Model the fold of this input.
Amino acid sequence: MEEIGRPKSWTEELASLVEDTGIRYTGDDHNLSSLSTPSFELKTALEGERVESESLKDQIKGFVKAWGEIAIELGKGCKDVVLQSVLTDDSYIVKKARGPCRVVSGKLSVLNEFLPEDRDPVHAWPVILSVFLVALSVLSLNIKHDNTPIPLVQSHPPTASRILLPDGRNISYHEQGVPADKARYSLIAPHAFLSSRIAGIPGIKSSLLEEFGVRLVTYDLPGFGESDPHPNRTLHSSAMDLLHLTEALEINKFWVAGYSSGAIHTWAALKYIPSKIAGAAMFAPMVNPYDPGMTKEERLGIWEKWTRRRKLMFYLARHFPRFLKFFYRRTFLSGKHGPIDKWLSFSLSEKDQDLTKDPVFKEFWKRDVEESVRQGNVKPFIEEAVLHVSNWGFSLRDLQVEKKCKERGLFDWFKFKASDVECELVGFLEPIHIWQGMEDLVVPSVMSDYVARVLPSAVVHKVENEGHFSYFYLCDECHKMILSTLFGEPQGPVKSIVEEEDDDDGRQESSM
Done:
């Protein structure tokens, strides 16, 4: 039987909890120094040696490590709860989200071909999306602080003339050149993206328009400038707006001009109201980059000229147009002015870059943009972007001049077999002139080559060493050459009967 000579100290109690010490005491022996057991080492460490106190840094590391382990376990628990309660097949959230998720995944499945064959899209795309969000967050940080003040978009009082359309909307317009009663030619110009009625033919002199007797009318597209938005805009409705405008202005026959993306409205006019149009003038005309009539080489030649951001804008406009709102609100609808190439996501040729640095161009562009965004509504811009890349409802081939003969039935064949077959020309029969800068990086020259291929009757004027803006903006010599090509020698305004009589009297007096 063991004999305990004295009560155990706290060190001995602690050692006894660690392991069985095997200590045996007798009544006379109280010398702990004779003990040779494993507990002796613990006792010596606790009593004989001083243990160094733990540093604050080590304490913080231990605290963080402990809380990290707790957070991991808590996350695992939450994940299990979500999997077992929320993401089950019969849960309300899964039932509501299953259909939209399938639609989105179906649209995005086309992107799976860009993944390596050994990568599962379910695992790869979340990683790619996470990296994209992190990169976007980093790029959004303003690391360099520029003290240069950013000009704000200014508001201007209304200045446009307006007419009421049959559907109750108002459309605003602006006139230049000679008045209606003295005009030899009427030229109507729809504007391009991020532009307005102010643009027209930028910088054209009134004296030049008077020299050729031209009445130039420009108007705001629905939702731009001072024109009311259209609830369901299409290229057909765009052509009808143009028709109603010219009828209200009592213009019977007119030329139509289309610059850059504004050319899509010119193409629509040639298709839907050809009898009202005397001819068309195009300047770097935009066509649908997804046009199925293009060859693989033509499509590649167009897309390779564009920046990645511009390609992304076209892709979003075609598949996910709602996402354009995010980009537009951060650029030209932000209430501030910015670089033209960044605002519209394209590259500029060297000559275009020089032009955009010109103070006159800057002031003209600034005022035009302010008029374009005056309503602050993002919807018209999204509609315009979608019109560029969606199904137009017609093809450019429909405008090609062809001979179409009337089909006859069997009875008509016997009755009129001796007569000539009745044929007529179809397509757009009036002249089409296209000016294309060969250094244009915004609307590549391949687009004009495509137009020339499907519309052999169109005359393409290839302008060497010119970009997208340099030939159309603020160039007096260019403007005179354009009007000379369209209208021939300048004849001035149409003279009234009184003026003609005065001229005749003057000539008679001078001959006496």
